[in-house]
Amino acid sequence: GYTHKILTSRAREFKTLNTLNGMSRFISRAESEHDIMEASHAGTSLSIGLGLAISEKLNEGNNYVVSIIGDGSLCEGMALEALNHISVEKDLKFIIVLNNNGYAISKGFGALHNYLESLKSRKNDTFFTTLGYEYIGPVDGHNIESIINTLKEAKKSKKIPIVHLKTEKGHGYLPAKNHVYLMHFSFPFDIETGKTKEEYVVKSYQDVASEVIMDEMRKDDKIITITPSTIYATGLQKCFDTYPERCFDPGMEEQHAMALAAGLALGNYKPIIFYQTTF
Q: Which spans are transmembrane here (predicted)?
């Protein structure tokens, strides 16, 4: 939502982020007329967009609805449920834009990630076209002219079009480009290096928790650790590096992660699932 906030005249408010009564980290109807919904997680845009598009149709309106979703969000259960529904609706002015940079929060993972990375032209697609969509792409997501021309093409489609944009994490800024999660979130940092300023380098709660988990995994080979695309927020990187066969990052799939943990427990293992409660 940060790019959206910048485009809707809130760039100057970023200095109030994470402060009392400051700018929200997420889109918020209370903050701007341009925020049409409340959202604190990904994976919701397709379902909400479909509802808006159906409303527009029933109201005999002429506006297009464009839902933007990232490749990391596309694997979420809610997004897949929406994909199952959207393509069978008729006469909707609805365009899906898939922004694919190969990352969720952590690096991309899984079959859908691998599939999207393999697409080189629209002729290669079998997944979206089989579901009844018109697949358009891949398109250079950093080329404004190409995006405009592609969206014009998408408006002419007789099916619901999926415009596949390929983008690069940290495009134009090496500290973000060269780091797995840097700039997804940030404490005050040095612009040249991207490194957190000294006074903000502290030992956090998650650092303490991850050290305990690491110690317990060393003593008990029945412990398995799961974090859904939040290695960065849990301090579990060392655990993943040391015990890769007992650590799982299934992507932004919290429901799946919880059920996976239940299955492991039924199999007499001791799963630890670690991520933010807001997710």
A: none
